[in-house]
Specification:
The protein is mostly helical. It has one domain. Helix content is 65%, strand content 0%. It contains four helices and no strands. It has helices at 6-12, 14-23, 28-43, 55-62. Helix 3 (28-43) crosses helix 4. It is elongated, with a radius of gyration of 18 Å. The termini are far apart.
Length: 63
């Protein structure tokens, strides 16, 4: 991101930034879930079809 773009980025996301600061909200849970889903997708590469994929996210999320 260049130095010219960051003011526009802050302007575009200002309400989200203010809400996060005022409400003290964290997106840690959603980032953790997203990380586990991505990890499952990486581990499931090589399957010929998606029949084995739906069972893996539940076993991944239990740990």
């Amino acid at each position: 991101m260049g130095s010219v773009q960051w003011p526009g980025t802050i302007k575009d996301h200002l309400w989200g930034i203010l809400n996060a600061v005022v409400l003290e909200v964290s997106n840690g849970l959603s980032e953790g879930l997203n990380s586990r889903i991505k990890m499952t997708k990486v581990h499931s590469r090589g399957f010929r079809n998606r029949s084995g994929l739906p069972m893996q996210p539940t076993s991944t999320l239990e740990g």
